[in-house]
Structure formats: structure tokens, C-alpha cells
């Protein structure tokens, strides 16, 4: 698999579609390897005529690991933030945005249509605010502004995301991953058991690194409320959000759209915190239409 040295670390990536086509950069979320962007979505976007690039964020998948770097636990970190203290974290979401910028630079791409999901949406927000020249359009998928006054995640979703597997046995890890996926997934579009099994086992066999999500979560908490920063984003922005997302409720999507000048939002009933096969064509069409409109407006 190809890799790039970006922002001083090694980032693994892949790409599909014509090399001379307009690029679309996909940025995944917390503890999520790049292959959680379904190949069906990648192929659909390539079929719309785009060069589609995915990459593993730092500390996950096959990208650089920050072994030994200490991060405060979620509870301690949240308590410190509540009393006005800012604990030190190994890296920030802004650092992760620089990784994505470095991937584009390494591929010789001056600017791209940027699509971020969940934490990847937060990273994409930073990229658009800090490097407006690199972002032709922004699509923020089931993400948030970080405003602490917005509705909280459902308790079962947080528990599923933060609970560690009982062991590192492959079958145990697969069952744990399937349980997480079912808990935060789309009630209106439940994944078939065979597909869920195959996808989760592929993730486990590709990479298991439990320390990375702890540091990534610390980066999220440390980032705080991005609402003011979002007001500086110039890129045409589309917000996509599920109306039945148990992890990041749909109110976060509306807040994101409200914070970014001239942003549009599309919400989908029955959609949770995943990318169901049934929604792939619709999501690809929404992203492609938005990207084409941004290109037309710029020209």
C-alpha cells in the first residue's frame, strides 16, 4: 500500500479514479481506519468522475503510531476542561488537519473537495479554516461544532465506543467491533450479518491498535467549541447528517450548518453513525453534486 511522509510522519493512503480528475479527499473518524469508507462509495464517487483518495489518520490503521505518548483519560480530561484547565495532549485536531494537507502536498494536489466523517469532519473543518486554498468544497458528515451545550450522545453509544474488548483474540475483537457497529449504526438501514462480519474481520486483520483512539479522543476533547472557527470557513459547505444518529445527534449537524457561512444541510431519516450500503448512491450523488456546483461557481 502506498505511503507518504506528511507533516513529519508516515501516512498510508490509497486512491481510485482517473489521475487527472478533480480530487476528493475522504477523512475518517475516531479510531476508524480508512477502509471504513465503503469501497462502494469510493467506486461511486470515482464513477462520478473524481479521483478519490482515502488515508489512515495518525495513530490508527497503517499510519504512524505515537507509541508511549500519554493522553489524559476521558473523564479526567473532561473534568479538567470543566474547571478551566487545559491538559496537555500528544497532538491536536489541527495537527491531524496538517497531516491531511500533507497528503495532498505529497500527491502534488493543490486543492481538493474534502469530505470528513465524524472526527474526520472536525479535521476537515480545521483544514478548510486553516488552509482555504486547499479546499475546493467541504462536506461534513455526521460531525459537530464541539459546542458542549448541544445534545449528548446516547449512553449506550458512548459505552460501546469506550468499552475495551475482553481480549485481543481475533474472534473476540470481531464480535466487539460488530457490537459497536450495531449500537451506533443506522436503525433504518441495519447491516446484514454477513456484510458486518466481513467488514469487521477485514478491519481486525488489517490493524488492531487500541491506544490510538485514546489519544485521538483527547485531541477531540481538547479542541473544544469550534463555532467561531467555523465562521471563517470560505469553502462551499454541505452538511450531511442522520436523523437517528445515536452518537452525534442531528442537532449537531444543524449547528454545524448554522456556524458555517452559507452552508447547506441534508438530513436523512433512519440514518445513524455509519455509511449503510442503501445510502451509498444517495451520498455519492450529494457529494458529487455539491463538488460540481463548487467547481462551477469558482470558474
UniProtKB/TrEMBL annotation:
<dbReference type="Pfam" id="PF00561">
    <property type="entry name" value="Abhydrolase_1"/>
</dbReference>
<dbReference type="InterPro" id="IPR000073">
    <property type="entry name" value="AB_hydrolase_1"/>
</dbReference>
<dbReference type="InterPro" id="IPR029058">
    <property type="entry name" value="AB_hydrolase_fold"/>
</dbReference>
<keyword id="KW-0378">Hydrolase</keyword>
<feature type="domain" description="AB hydrolase-1">
    <location>
        <begin position="23"/>
        <end position="277"/>
    </location>
</feature>
<dbReference type="GO" id="GO:0016787">
    <property type="term" value="F:hydrolase activity"/>
</dbReference>
<protein>
    <submittedName>
        <fullName>Alpha/beta hydrolase</fullName>
    </submittedName>
</protein>
<dbReference type="InterPro" id="IPR050471">
    <property type="entry name" value="AB_hydrolase"/>
</dbReference>
Amino acid at each position: 500500500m502506498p505511503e507518504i511522509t506528511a507533516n513529519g510522519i508516515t501516512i498510508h493512503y490509497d486512491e481510485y479514479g482517473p489521475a487527472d480528475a478533480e480530487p476528493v479527499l475522504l477523512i475518517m473518524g475516531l479510531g476508524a481506519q480508512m477502509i471504513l469508507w465503503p469501497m462502494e462509495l469510493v467506486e461511486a464517487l470515482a464513477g462520478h468522475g473524481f479521483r478519490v483518495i482515502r488515508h489512515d489518520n495518525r495513530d490508527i490503521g497503517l499510519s504512524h503510531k505515537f507509541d508511549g505518548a500519554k493522553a489524559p483519560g476521558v473523564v479526567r480530561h473532561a473534568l479538567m476542561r470543566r474547571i478551566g484547565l487545559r491538559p496537555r495532549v500528544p497532538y491536536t485536531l489541527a495537527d491531524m488537519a496538517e497531516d491531511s494537507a500533507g497528503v495532498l502536498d505529497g500527491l502534488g494536489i493543490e486543492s481538493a473537495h474534502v469530505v470528513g466523517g465524524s472526527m474526520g469532519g472536525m479535521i476537515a473543518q480545521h483544514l478548510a479554516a486553516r488552509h482555504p486554498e486547499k479546499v475546493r468544497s467541504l462536506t461534513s458528515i455526521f460531525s459537530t461544532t464541539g459546542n458542549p451545550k448541544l445534545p449528548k450522545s446516547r449512553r449506550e453509544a458512548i459505552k460501546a465506543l469506550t468499552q475495551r474488548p475482553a481480549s485481543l483474540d481475533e474472534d473476540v475483537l470481531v464480535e466487539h467491533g460488530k457490537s459497536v457497529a450495531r449500537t451506533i449504526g443506522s436503525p433504518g438501514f441495519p447491516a446484514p450479518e454477513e456484510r458486518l462480519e466481513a467488514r469487521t474481520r477485514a478491519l481486525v486483520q488489517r490493524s488492531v491498535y487500541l491506544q490510538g483512539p485514546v489519544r485521538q479522543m483527547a485531541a477531540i476533547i481538547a479542541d473544544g467549541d469550534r463555532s467561531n472557527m467555523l465562521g471563517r470557513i470560505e469553502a462551499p459547505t454541505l452538511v450531511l447528517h442522520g436523523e437517528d444518529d445515536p452518537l452525534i445527534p442531528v442537532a449537531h449537524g444543524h449547528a454545524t450548518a448554522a456556524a458555517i457561512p452559507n452552508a447547506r444541510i441534508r438530513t436523512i431519516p433512519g440514518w445513524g453513525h455509519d455509511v449503510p450500503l442503501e445510502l451509498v448512491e444517495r451520498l455519492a450523488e450529494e457529494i458529487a453534486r455539491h463538488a460540481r456546483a463548487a467547481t462551477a461557481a469558482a470558474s
